[in-house]
Amino acid sequence: MKVLVVMGSKSDSQIAEKVTAVLDEFGVEYDVEVASAHRNPKKVEELAKKDYEVFIAIAGLSAALPGVIAAHTVRPVIGVPVSAKLNGLDALLSIAQMPPGVPVAAVGIDNGKNAALLAIEILAVKNEELREKLEEYREKMRA
Ligand SMILES: Nc1c(C(=O)O)ncn1[C@@H]1O[C@H](COP(=O)(O)O)[C@@H](O)[C@H]1O
After folding, report:
1. Residue 103 CB partners (closer than 8 Å, separation 6+)
2. CATH tag, 2-142
3. What is the pLDDT of residue 44?
4. Where, by residue number, does substrate bind (predicted)?
């Protein structure tokens, strides 16, 4: 059970840290990579073809990265738009407006936390222990 957290640039690492903090909290295994679909498309293709269960792709500006990963895998891809310019609206729209047939789940701008939680919810469909941890997490929030 492994998640790939991939960011388009090292400059996105603050958002990647929000993701990994939650994955650590839930004890979910992950790898972290920097790979740009624009600058290094071959690396992105290679990563997308690896056997990860869920991909979390973090990108600002013209955020092709989540969509390009989705083009190479049928595993779920969660995109995190980063507010590099235009308060992140450019990246949000790039990630949300995928052509029909190749979906990417878009979380809110800079919302690495929700990307991690959504990845955990996907993994929890087949994992009772994770499901219980999610219930506890919600319970704490309610309190
Ligand atoms: N959106 C993408 C992609 C991509 O989608 O392939 N590659 C880099 N970027 C984004 O460019 C912004 C500026 O990157 P630099 O700081 O390296 O110039 C980052 O937010 C990155 O995610």
Report:
1. 70, 77
2. 3.40.50.1970
3. 98
4. 9, 12, 39
